[in-house]
Design goal:
Strand 12 and strand 13 form a beta hairpin. Helix 12 packs across helix 13, helix 12 packs across helix 14 and helix 14 runs antiparallel to helix 15. The protein is 41% helix and 17% strand. It is an alpha+beta fold and 606 residues long. The strands form 3 sheets. Strands 1-2-5-4-3-6-7-10-8-9-11-12-13 form a 13-stranded mixed sheet, sandwiched between helices. A 3-stranded antiparallel sheet has the order 14-19-16. A 3-stranded antiparallel sheet has the order 15-17-18, with helices on both faces. This is Class I SAM-dependent methyltransferase.
């Protein structure tokens, strides 16, 4: 029997509800993240929306301009979300009224969390059929599918099939034919259900709380895109967890991009499908849909998006209908950098990421390419300087991670990162080279330089390749600048900045990379440490052998001296030398006395 409960009679309990269970995600992004930005773009004002499954409450806040109905299986979640929704149905898809249809149905948590384990089980295909029936003709379905061969599973230290926690109601694998296992199978299922798939986004670094949504078709086509390279590396370097992983997900994601497989290895996909109205032609891919949605991590900016423009891709800010936050800016003069939302409005420069090009050339021991890239980078930075030799704005933070190269043209990829004050050109160059040197050495990459170089030493060498004479004092200043900038961009307090500066000053080639820890990188760091210990042990053994040989030579010399001291010739020679030595001392004493007597007389005569 259907009953109405508080608050305000918005909750419907058709039966099968889970009374002591919660599905709401624990990890949440500011303003709902890229998913909320995408949903806001897909939902016009006044639209009737069905949110099927557990979603971040911030998503409901972004959909305040629409009439939202939530379909949940958890009663505690219903109580938590009811104040933000127009209506909440608890108990699974079987509780949806047959005559209710919606303009947009969003199942961004997948279909498994939609149905209750306390009610009638429909299975994945049954839940899909019920949600498709709830989409009105001309409406749309936004559906998430987790990838059983995704990046998250490839790098996880715990196998997916070993899950024993309470949330593992369904453990999906490729052998479960009830679930689609890739994008093609999902498109086929949607087509069979009467929908027309029109767009697909790859979710990184985690399907449940993605910080980047990238158009899957463009990922397949634009394998050399500097934008996708930077976004994937940035999203996966921090990851959605601080647990130790098997290997570096950022490196694997970038390699997959350049191999044309970044979409296939995505942890999950968000597919947009439309239900054509009678006589309506199937909609083509909408050019107004974003190519990329990126969580910025700074309040006041929210989500950056990349859209198609007349002359290519353009930066923009994702639309929001929730509560606005003032634009981020430096709160005091101590802030070294900030992010300017107004700068995210121009074209996205084409080209490949400088960091990737440098790593590739270093791995191949191609010093000619390294020299050409660094010389062009240093010259481009010099062109950005003013008459006093200082660089301001976005160019002051133009390191290899945020610069794209297209032939001989260098450009800042994301111009919203800006320095508060102007920095000397040598410091800007040294900071960019130090960041690359630290990534190269701590990442365990093969390179053509001496293994005894430390990070500042390699920075000086790279400066020489760039045609600039950098010294260690300049590198030290660049490291302090890097600590101040990183502290400002990540919102660290004074103690955090001091700790970060100490950590950066002590970065050594034998350390693992700063950030996410992987067993592969930890093993490589251990091997470098073992090689260093072996080298130091050999040096110590050589030094001890040298000291031993010198000590033996000294003992032989002392023995020889002792033997010579007791010989007759030594005694005769000493008897002959001693009077001469005494006479010499007496002459020196007489000379000093004579000088002492004559000096006063000479002064009186003068």
């Amino acid at each position: 029997m259907t009953t109405e409960t508080a608050p305000a009679g918005r909750i419907t309990l058709p039966g099968g509800e889970m009374l002591a269970w919660s599905d709401l995600p624990q990890q949440r992004l500011a303003d709902g993240g890229p998913l909320a930005a995408l949903a806001t773009r897909l939902v016009p004002p006044g639209t009737r929306v069905l949110l099927a499954g557990p979603h971040d409450p911030a998503l409901l806040g972004q959909l305040g301009h629409a009439e939202v109905t939530c379909l949940l299986r958890s009663h505690p979640d219903a109580v938590a979300l009811a104040p933000r929704a127009a209506h909440v149905v608890v108990g699974g898809p079987a509780g949806l009224p047959d005559d209710e249809t919606y303009d947009v149905v969003i199942a961004a948590a997948g279909l498994d969390p939609v149905e209750s384990v306390e009610g009638t089980r429909l299975g994945w295909s049954g839940v899909l059929a019920r949600l498709v029936a709830a989409v009105r003709p001309g409406g749309a379905l936004l559906l998430r599918l987790d990838n059983p061969l995704g990046l998250h599973r490839l790098v996880s230290a715990t196998p997916w099939y070993a899950a024993r926690d309470d949330s593992a109601w369904v453990i999906g694998g490729v052998l479960d034919r009830g679930h689609p296992a890739n994008r093609d199978q999902l498109r086929d299922r949607l087509t069979e259900a009467g929908l027309r798939p029109t767009a697909c986004w790859a979710a990184y670094p985690d399907a449940g709380s993605p910080t980047a949504l990238l158009d899957a078709d463009h990922l397949d086509r634009d394998a050399g895109s500097g934008l996708f390279d930077a976004v994937l590396h940035g999203a996966c370097a921090g990851g959605s967890t601080r647990d130790t992983v098997l290997q570096d997900p950022a490196r694997l994601a970038v390699d997959a991009l350049h191999a044309g497989r970044a979409a296939d290895l995505a942890p999950g996909w968000l597919v947009l499908a439309h239900r054509p109205a009678d006589g309506e032609r199937p909609p083509a891919a909408d050019r107004d849909l974003p190519v990329a949605l990126i969580q910025t991590g700074r309040p006041g900016i929210g989500v950056a998006e990349v859209l198609h423009g007349p002359s290519g891709w353009r930066w923009g800010l994702a639309p929001t209908t929730g509560r606005q936050t003032p634009s981020a800016a430096p709160f005091a003069s101590r802030e070294a950098a900030y992010r300017d939302a107004d700068a995210l409005s121009g074209p996205v420069p084409s080209g490949r990421l400088l960091r990737t090009l440098l790593l590739d050339a270093a791995l191949r021991r191609d010093l000619t390419t390294v020299r050409t890239l660094l010389h062009g980078y240093a010259g481009w930075l010099a062109d950005q300087a003013d008459a006093d030799g200082r660089i301001a704005g976005a160019a002051a933070l133009a390191e290899a991670d945020n610069v794209v190269v297209d032939g001989e043209r260098y450009a800042v990829l994301d111009p919203s990162w800006r320095a508060t004050g102007a920095l000397p050109t040598d410091v800007v160059l040294a900071r960019g080279l130090w960041r690359f040197a630290a990534a190269l050495l701590t990442g365990g990459y093969a390179h053509p330089w001496s293994s005894t170089l430390d990070v500042p030493g390699l920075t000086v060498v790279l400066g020489g390749l760039a045609g600039r004479d950098l010294d260690r004092a300049t590198v030290t200043e660049a490291v302090e600048t890097e600590a101040a900038i990183a502290a400002a961009l990540h919102g660290l307090d004074v103690d955090g900045r001091i700790n970060l500066a100490t950590e950066l000053r002590t970065v050594a080639p034998t350390d693992p990379p700063i950030g996410l820890r992987s067993y592969q990188q930890l093993r490589e760091a251990w091997l470098r440490q073992r090689e260093e210990i072996t080298r130091l042990a050999a040096l110590t053994a050589w030094t001890e052998e040298l000291l031993t040989s010198r000590e033996r030579a000294l003992r032989r010399a002392e023995t020889t001296i002792g033997l010579l001291s007791g010989s007759i010739s030594y005694r005769v020679g000493r008897l002959a030398i001693t009077p001469a030595r005494l006479a010499k001392r007496g002459a020196r004493a007489a000379k000093r006395r004579a000088t002492a007597v004559l000096a006063p007389k000479q002064e009186e005569q003068q």
